[in-house]
UniProtKB/TrEMBL annotation:
GO terms for biological process: rRNA processing. This is Ribosome biogenesis protein WDR12 homolog. WD repeats lie at residues 181-222, 251-291, 337-379. It comes from the Eukaryota. Keywords: Nucleus, Repeat, Ribosome biogenesis, rRNA processing, WD repeat. The keyword Repeat applies. It holds the Pfam family WD40. Gene3D superfamilies: YVTN repeat-like/Quinoprotein amine dehydrogenase. The lineage of its organism: Eukaryota, Viridiplantae, Streptophyta, Embryophyta, Tracheophyta.
Length: 416
């Protein structure tokens, strides 16, 4: 009998002996103490069998137990205490949502633009070239039916949209931008919103990082001109006002395309670039405070883990790497994940877990990772071509887009 079957049988038992009266379980010679007490079993009176993973000394066991003990040099005579956790893997694949072209950017922080994950409710118009990045702006003063979105494009601009989600229609509503942000001289590659939702940060092919005021006036340094533009009859209005703004701050230092920016704390921004570097910036002083050169062009970056202090990044090789900038004097990654076979295009930490993150790749896969093992927890093969973007959605799903022009959702992932 396998370990998962043993745990399921214990959880489903009608009578639950105390921990002191339980016998040890003999498996592959080492003795494994049964850690399941009466109260733990009694909490699951209607238990349904499910797969479990197991941890030994804080590390997930990804090999047969005897092989794991040999690999770790653990004596077969040692008494081990196992911790069980639910297997983290998608249990359901939603029907893919087709698009007219490549899906190159997703943001899973708000579920309201796609009804029931399959029906598009809003189409945001106005860019003259491919959209490379998008973010929701979570404004605390918003009414229930309004939603703000910012997009970046190869047309060198950022555009802000306000969507009315309270009106239900039988076809997607077309929405035009209420504000255009200009200043980059090449494609906008990445956007992030600051923790207070007052500022935007963008990285570009022009090697610069710029900050923009979401709301502002000339006194705030946000140079605004009000222009009357005639919109499409299906757009935000026949003669809707459209604001234009310029950047308030520009960060200089990267020597090639800035592919990713993230803003984990109010005064700190991280950026990744094709110049092989990850850089930390102080928002108040507009200065670089830390940098690290990793030897590869980077495509993606995200901060997470305990205290959002770890940096995950991927790029022009199949390895997803994690660094801890709190450890001075070393550039060695603290974790490396090497199961992809193509360039890494996106990486995202789970919004509420210190251990879990996802990555997507040109190999057509989205992989789920746990810092406690070097092996992927799951590999999602929904796409038929390169996966260009991925994000967590609603905490228990992964949404991804690719060169196959599909938006895919893998759902029912239990992370506790």
């Amino acid at each position: 009998m396998g370990l998962s079957e043993i745990v399921n049988s214990l959880l489903a038992a009608d009578e639950h002996p105390t921990a002191e009266s339980q016998p040890s379980i003999q498996l592959n010679e080492p003795r494994i103490l049964n850690p399941f007490t009466r109260s733990r079993c009694a909490a699951e009176p209607d238990h349904k069998a499910q797969p479990f993973d197991f941890l030994v000394d804080g590390e997930l066991v990804r090999l047969p137990l005897q092989q794991f003990l040999l690999a770790k040099g653990i004596s077969a005579e040692r008494v081990l205490e196992l911790e069980y956790v639910k297997v983290v893997a998608p249990r359901k694949q939603e029907e893919p949502c087709p698009h007219d072209d490549w899906v190159s950017a997703v943001d899973g922080s708000n579920p309201r633009l796609w009804k029931d994950a399959v029906v598009c409710t809003q189409i945001l118009e106005g860019h003259s070239d491919a959209i490379t990045s998008t973010r929701f702006i979570n404004k605390g003063v918003e009414t229930e039916g309004s939603l703000h979105v910012v997009t970046g494009s190869k047309d060198r601009s950022l555009r802000l949209y306000k969507c009315d989600t309270s009106v239900s229609v039988d076809y997607p509503k077309r929405v035009g931008a209420y504000k255009i942000l200009r200043g980059h001289t090449s494609s906008v590659q990445s956007i992030v919103v600051d923790p207070s939702s007052d500022l935007l940060c963008s990285g570009s092919w022009d090697s610069t990082i710029k900050l923009w005021a979401i709301e502002g006036s000339e006194e705030d340094g946000d140079v605004v001109s009000l222009k009357k533009r005639r919109m499409d009859s299906d757009s935000i209005g026949p003669k809707e006002s459209q604001l234009e703004g310029l950047a308030t701050i520009t960060f200089l230092g990267h020597t090639q395309c800035v592919t990713a920016v993230t803003w984990p704390e109010q005064q700190t921004i991280y950026s990744a670039s094709w110049d092989h570097s990850v850089r930390q910036w102080d928002v108040q002083t507009v200065k670089e405070t830390w940098n690290m050169f990793c030897g590869n062009a980077l495509n993606c970056l995200d901060c997470g883990g305990e205290g959002s202090s770890l940096i995950a990044a991927g790029g022009s090789d199949p390895v997803l790497r994690v660094w801890d900038p709190r450890k001075p004097g070393t550039l060695a990654p603290v974790f490396q994940f090497s199961s992809h076979s193509g360039w890494i295009t996106a990486c995202k930490w789970h919004p509420s877990s210190w251990f879990h993150l996802i990555s997507s790749s040109f190999d057509g896969k989205v992989m789920l990772w746990d810092l406690r093992t070097a092996w992927p927890l799951a590999s999602v093969d929904s796409h038929k071509d390169k996966v260009l973007c991925a994000d967590w959605w609603k905490g228990d799903s992964v949404v991804s887009g690719g060169a196959d022009s599909k938006l895919c959702i893998a759902s029912d992932i239990e992370i506790v």
